[in-house]
Amino acid sequence: MVRLPDGTRLGSAGSAGLLRTSPVLAALRSPPAATASYRSTLNGVDTLYVVAPIRSGTTALGTLVVTADLSELRADQDRALALIAAEALVALVGAVAGAYLLLRRLLRNVGRITTTAASIEHGDLDRRLGDQGTDDEVGQLAATFDAMLDRLQAAMTVQRRLLSDVSHQLRTPLTVARGHLEVLARQERPSMGEVRDTVAVVVDELEHMGALVERLLMLGRALEPDFLEIQPLDLRAFLSELLESARVLAARDWLSSRCPISSSRWTWPSSAVPC
After folding, report:
1. What is the DSSP string of 211-262?
2. How does pLDDT run across 185-214, given as a tens digit for each residue?
3. Are 36 and 51 in contact, with CB atoms under 8 Å apart?
4. Which of 15, 23, 62, 214 could bridge to 54 as Cys pair (CB 3.0-4.6 Å)?
5. Are 26 and 16 in contact (CB under 8 A)?
């Protein structure tokens, strides 16, 4: 509908009903200075109103009123919202199901790791998780756990063997020393020579035990990461010192050849005899 300044109204078919609506009548009586839009109900139908002034420069030529039925748009919006809700529900169900399956497998593997760790705690070092059939974090965790168990079992095996060897090595001097002392104790009046011999044997066995203890301490320190301190070595000076030390071992002809050394590799002499 177009309303002219003299009050004449021109409109399309069905526009007469607009005159029975209070928003349109108010807009026609007081035209807005700029285009305005608002929603209202026309004959029970949700309707969008757009009211715009018609101007030519600063001269008002009339007022334009346009309406649009929003019922179909509302129906489309309802269908779109229903579709979005259905898609969101399907996505939610899928996400929950996927998370449940993933967590179930993860918790099953974690439970297997816990059971294996409990068995190891009770002394069963032969238990392993094995191949999980996956290359994800759980499979890597299982492989790392099995590798750790292998190293732990090897370390415990070495420890048991070491304790067995140490107990055997320490039992011999203790038995010898105890035997000599018991023999000495059975004598009512042992001579000073027998006492000195017994003391000498016991001291010798104690020194042997002390040497074993020192070796054990050295072995314990050798397991520390900073036991060896790596430093650069002058190979020529080292070989010269080694030659001087070896000459006192036996009356033999000890030789040390001078090999030219390049910056990147050894250069063998033309005689093809390694230095």
Report:
1. HHHHHHHHHHHHTSTTSS------HHHHHHHHHHHHTTTSS---------B-
2. 888 787 888 888 888 888 888 888 888 888
3. yes
4. 62
5. no
pLDDT tens digits, 68-84: 878 888 888 889 999 99
For residue 133, give the amino acid letter.
G
Tokens representing residue 199 in the block? 């003391």
Instruction: Say if residue 113 is exposed, middle or buried (CB neighbours under 10 Å; 0-12, 13-18, 19+).
Output: middle
Give me the percent of the chain exceeding a pLDDT of 70: 85
Contacts of 10 (CB under 8 A, 6+ apart): 1, 2, 4
Give the 3-state secondary structure of residue 56. strand
Greater confidence (51 vs 132) lies with 51
Q: Is 130 helix (H, G, I), strand (E, B) or coil?
A: coil
User: What is the band of 132 on the pLDDT scale with cuts at 50, 70, 90?
Assistant: low
Which CB contacts under 8 angstroms, 24+ apart, belong to 34-40?
39/70
b/e 136-175 (16+ beta carbons within 10 angstroms → b): eebeebbeebbeebeeeeeeeeeeeeeeeeeeeeeeebee
